[in-house]
Amino acid sequence: MLKRKKPETQLQADVRHILMCTLGAFIIAFNLNTFVNTGGLFPGGFAGVALLIIRGLAKYAGIHLSYSIIYIPINLIPVWIGWKYIGKRFTLFSLYVIVLSSLLTDFMPKITVTYDVFLIALFGGIVNGTVISICLYANACTGGTDFISMYFSAQKGVDAWNYIFAGNVVVLTLAGLMFGWDKPLYSIVYQFCTTQVIHTFFRRYNSQTLMIISEKSEEIYEVIRLLTHHDGTLFKGIGMYQKKERRMILSVVSSDEVSRLLARIQEIDPNAFINIWKTEQLVGNFHRRDID
């Protein structure tokens, strides 16, 4: 029988999430001041929109505004979307990240690590993707288009990150027309690195199909049910080589559950034959964990 560890209380989870969100907010501000502003880049989403407005007003109107004055108000509509469609606790954590990171960006010292714009785009994008992943694991997001992507991922089961990346081209085009094309082109590198890091580290809303051939199918199904709350389908067939009856379990689980599940399956049956492939689209009843 699979033993369950003592579940984390809601208070413990909230404290852990707040600490992660606080760390994320500091990293966001550091990244903006150290890489983005030094390189004159335009990050994706509403952060890029905010910087486009700030730099445009400074260049063409001589008006100098702080980052928080622009970034917090333009996030009000995405925050409303999050509150109504995604989850109240998720939205509150995200709002905390938005406000704290904005204020820290205004008040934290600006540190220059390098003036090489390519290195800035590369490492800045990696840092940005990492901190977005941290916030997502902390049941929060960094604001703006993250809410939109989370909405489509959680409610529709659609991976929207690449579409958000494509939408950022509009902001980069405006930035190129206003400030020249070199920094917007480097910003594409920054945004691409961000997207790839998120795809690598945060896979909750991606799904994979498991095909498991084992003589201990009942025990393996119990593990799948307890660990993932997903069902499985049992198929019976004949092994072509030995002409013996074989049992195969077919189950679809979230990608971030696969590693833990495989470890438990191999404990039960080291000789189990397991085939895993990426699930591009799901139609039908599939258990998705609540964001809150």
Describe it.
The chain crosses the membrane at residues 15-35, 65-83, 89-105, 117-140, 160-181. Keywords: Cell membrane, Membrane, Transmembrane, Transmembrane helix. It is a multi-pass membrane protein. Residues 232-284 form the DUF2179 domain. It is found in: Cell membrane. The chain is α+β, with helices and mostly antiparallel strands. It has 2 domains: 12-201, no CATH class; 207-279, Alpha-Beta Plaits (2-Layer Sandwich), CATH 3.30.70.120. 62% of the residues lie in helices and 10% in strands. It has 11 helices and 4 strands, in the order H-H-H-H-H-H-H-H-H-E-H-E-E-H-E. It has helices spanning 10-39, 45-60, 67-74, 76-86, 88-107, 117-137, 145-156, 161-179, 182-201, 217-228, 258-268; strands at residues 207-213, 233-238, 245-254, 273-279. Strands 2-3-1-4 form a 4-stranded antiparallel β-sheet, with helices on one face. A hairpin with a 6-residue loop joins strand 2 and strand 3. Helix 1 (10-39) runs parallel beside helix 5 (88-107), helix 4 (76-86) runs antiparallel to helix 5 and helix 10 (217-228) runs antiparallel to helix 11. The protein is elongated, with a radius of gyration of 23 Å. The mean pLDDT is 85.
